[in-house]
Amino acid sequence: QVQLVESGGGLVQPGGSLRLSCATSGFSFSSYYMSWYRQAPGKERELVARSSNTGSVTTYADSVKGRFTISRDNTKNTLYLQMNNLKAEDTAVYYCSWNGMYWGQGTQVTVSS
Questions:
Q1: What integer pLDDT is reported at residue 99 of this predicted model?
Q2: How many Cβ atoms sit within 10 Å of the Cβ of residue 14?
Q3: What is the rounded average pLDDT of the residues 46-74?
Q4: β-strands 10-12, 107-111: how paired?
C-alpha cells in the first residue's frame, strides 16, 4: 500500500523559513522521481519542485527558484522541501507526489505577519 505523509507546515512570517517532509512507504522510493506541488485557495494545483531518483537533478517553478530546495534521503524514503525567504504568495497546501498518481494529504503553509 502506497503511503505519502507530509509534515512540517505551519504559520510563518514573511521572510521566514520552513522545512517540509514527506515520509513514504509501499514503493521503491529510491527508483523514482518525486515532486512537490502546491495549491492555493481558488487556484489550480501547481508543480513547485521535482527531484530525480538520486537527487542529482532538480527542477523548480520560476516563482520559487533560489528560495526553495528539494532534497531526499533514500535511506529514509523521505522527500524534503526547504523553503526560505517565504512570501505571502507561497501560502498554500503543499503536497508530495509520486508519478502524479499518488498524493499525500497535504500540509498547510501560511505566510502572514
A1: 87
A2: 13
A3: 98
A4: parallel
What confidence tens digit (pLDDT) does each residue in 89-99 have? 999 999 999 98
Residue 5 burial (CB count, 10 A): 14
Rounded to an integer, what distance in angstroms lies between the CA atom of residue 30 and that of residue 112? 35
Give the C-alpha distances (Å, rounded to integers) separating 91 from 12, 41, 74, 110.
10, 9, 28, 5
Percent of the chain exceeding pLDDT 90 equals 98
Q: CA-to-CA distance for 27 and 44, rounded, in angstroms? A: 27
Alpha carbon distance 62, 74 (integer Å): 26
Distance CA 92, CA 74 (A): 26
Reference 58, options 42, 66, 9; nearest CA is: 66
Q: What type of residue is 104? A: G
